[in-house]
Design a protein that fits this description.
flat, single chain, mainly alpha, 2 domains, 66% helix, 4 strands, 11 helices, two-stranded antiparallel sheet
Length: 296
């Protein structure tokens, strides 16, 4: 069970934490032109390196180093094949919705699950040597690497899922509702965290960015700020709920309302603001309740 949690955590880190917007864009651009070929120039291979390296943390907790390397190579290969097929399908169909995103992640996790069952690696206590030949009279110059509790691993996975991954889900939901018109302010999209493809920029944002209206032009800085606002917002909600401090969530709403006071006077803008905020809070509350149940 713990091996599976380590692998899932490594997958989330590689797919959502370490993968940059630029890498996501490079993959999409490559498959628009060369969607049937795999070459050394394919940006997908860079992503594969991130996936492979992220799983090497297993060496700190498990024996059978060669078996771990073989397992992680097989998982990475499967990951790349799934991404490759998904990118071909989405580029050919010109669609990249929540269904494709969910199916892709399900296949990744299913592949990881089967790999964790097939490969038998055993946990062992590992140590780090201090200062080369330095010897301590207490532990002979060794520091014991502590085993990470299952509850801690589960909590970290939930934090990533309901803060970062949830941003991608929110983007697909809002994009499905066709939130693009001349009355939509850029800040509504920022607060709602309209993202796509593991934190990338959505089609909605791209349409706004190329708009002839100066007020609707979204700079890259504003995009990044908007994404960070949403992630921090959900992290705070998760922490407050897990701690049972439900009233503290009112501070987040108060700050957001104050900073967007002028925008909220417009009915259309306020509706989009409310929708994005409610979705963000929903994921944050669910994540907090799961962590609270896990640690109780």
């Amino acid at each position: 069970m713990k091996l599976l949690l380590y692998l899932i955590l490594a997958h989330l880190v590689a797919d959502f934490v370490l993968q940059s917007d630029q890498l996501v864009k490079s993959k999409n651009d490559y498959y628009k032109e060369f969607n049937k070929y795999i070459s050394i120039k394919n940006p997908l291979l860079k992503h594969g390196i991130l996936v492979l390296l992220s799983m090497q943390i297993l060496h700190l907790f498990y024996d059978n180093s060669l078996l771990i390397i073989l397992m992680t190579i097989i998982i990475t290969t499967g990951h790349l094949l799934i991404d490759h097929k998904k990118l071909i399908i989405t580029q050919q169909s010109c669609k990249n919705g929540l269904l494709y995103f969910s199916l892709e992640q399900f296949l990744h996790l299913l592949w990881i699950y089967f790999a964790s069952i097939f490969f038998k690696v055993s946990y062992t206590q590992k140590y780090i040597w201090l200062f080369g030949s330095y010897k301590s009279k207490y532990n002979n110059g060794e520091i014991e690497i502590p085993d990470i509790d299952t509850y801690i691993l589960g909590s970290i996975i939930i934090l990533i899922l309901f803060s970062i991954v949830a941003g991608s889900v929110i983007s697909f939901i809002l994009e499905k509702l066709k939130i693009v018109n001349n009355e939509v302010d850029v800040h509504v999209i920022e607060i709602s965290n309209v993202m796509i493809e593991e934190g990338g920029v959505s089609d909605v944002q791209e349409e706004i960015a190329v708009s002839n209206e100066p007020s609707l032009a979204m700079s890259k800085t504003n995009q990044k700020i908007g994404i960070k606002i949403g992630i921090i917002e959900r992290l705070l909600v998760i922490i407050f709920v897990a701690m049972g401090q439900y009233s503290a969530m009112g501070l987040i709403l108060a700050v957001k309302s104050i900073t967007r006071f002028e925008e909220l006077k417009n009915k259309k803008k306020s509706e989009y603001y409310l929708l994005g905020t409610l979705l963000s809070f929903l994921f944050g509350i669910l994540g907090g309740l799961l962590i609270k149940r896990l640690i109780d």
